[in-house]
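Lab notebook: predicted structure, single chain.

Context: the supervisor wants predicted structures on file for every construct in the current expression panel, including those that have not yet been purified. This is the next one on the list. No modifications to the sequence; it matches the entry in the shared construct table.
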Amino acid sequence: MVLGGAGSAGNAWVIGVVAGLFDAGLDVTDADLIIGTSSGSTTAAQLTSAIRPPELYAATVAAAPPPRRGPGGGRPPHAVGNLLEQTSAIIAAATDPADMRRKLGAAALELDATTDSAAQAQRRALVASRLPSQDWPETLVRIVAVDAHTGEPVVFDRDSGVGLADAVTASTSGPGGPPHTIGDHRYIDGGYRAGENADLATGYERVLVLSPFGGRSRTPEEWGLHLATQIDQLRATGSSVETVFPAGDAVAIFALGANQMDPAQRPPAARAGYDQGRALAAHLTDFWR
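Prediction complete. Output recorded below exactly as produced.
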């Protein structure tokens, strides 16, 4: 199972989809491998814990949002727009994916120079508080990040020697935030490798992709980072692939430029995902089993 990222709302939507499937009789958390990118890494850690999807869903829709930091909650809307413009400019100036990652890493490292260690420790603690367990699960989970200095992608798992909370913090470090430090290395968001990183499931018979952004990418299609390209590659190697994209009330939440970091978006995103999960269960049951 492949879990793409899309901020706080993306986390809630994926939890909703999986809970809806679960309540309709299909438990996809029994996957042999779960790949998590950006907020999808948080979701992967949550879904492989001892807490069942319906409980995660109930907590998501019932939780009161934290104090708002701007008129739109989470990041202020103008900040979301600025980040989109800044990262889009970096992508447009890059010559290929490796160059893009290096440039994005350099921009994050500039921000890192203005961020004190206490703030970074506080962010790690916040990420850790969202995880039901600090231990890697028995299920094989792969979490994607990018080395901020070299631009090289990194995949963490239970054998990588990196704690689960650090791996998730690294994968969720961006955009607009400083890199996460692990030892002598600094890491930025795994979404800078690709939005879903579905290609990491190569060799698996069945691949289910949950993509809050609907497989969209701001990178040139010829770079091969679009989900459609990765799905073609998976199918060419013998994998059967199914995708779930936002529908109904969730579409507007994940529109380009919308504030997916707004905590107020979590309950409606989760509810929309839940409804989708229940509606898709019959279709996906034959595929998954």
